[in-house]
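Deliverable D2.4 — example input (structure tokens):
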């Protein structure tokens, strides 16, 4: 059984988005349909692996990170994709990943 937290757009109770840097988003295919079950990896500015979660059935994912430059990469049976995000401060920062075949 995976110990990853439940994913979704709603933050868990007790999380103060003004004190945390949250990277959240959705994995979608090229027509915008959600892709659930994708492995979503968080890579730092040098490309080093930092964390991984499994996207929810509705394609949602979430990471708690630090301000800086990040790459978010999705790997799935339907294809792979990636996006970059560079939060400069705490708060919720959304980035969607479109996968291709």
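Example output (designed residues):
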């Amino acid at each position: 059984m995976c110990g990853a937290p439940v994913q979704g757009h709603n933050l868990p109770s007790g999380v103060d988005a003004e004190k945390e840097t949250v990277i959240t988003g959705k994995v979608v295919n090229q027509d915008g349909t959600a892709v659930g079950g994708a492995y979503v990896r968080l890579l730092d500015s040098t490309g080093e692996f930092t964390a991984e979660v499994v996207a929810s059935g509705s394609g949602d994912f979430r990471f708690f990170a630090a301000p800086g430059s990040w790459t978010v990469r999705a790997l799935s049976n339907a294809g792979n994709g990636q996006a970059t995000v560079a939060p400069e401060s705490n708060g919720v920062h959304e980035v969607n990943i479109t996968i291709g075949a």
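The domain at 22-98 is CATH 2.60.40.1120 (Immunoglobulin-like).
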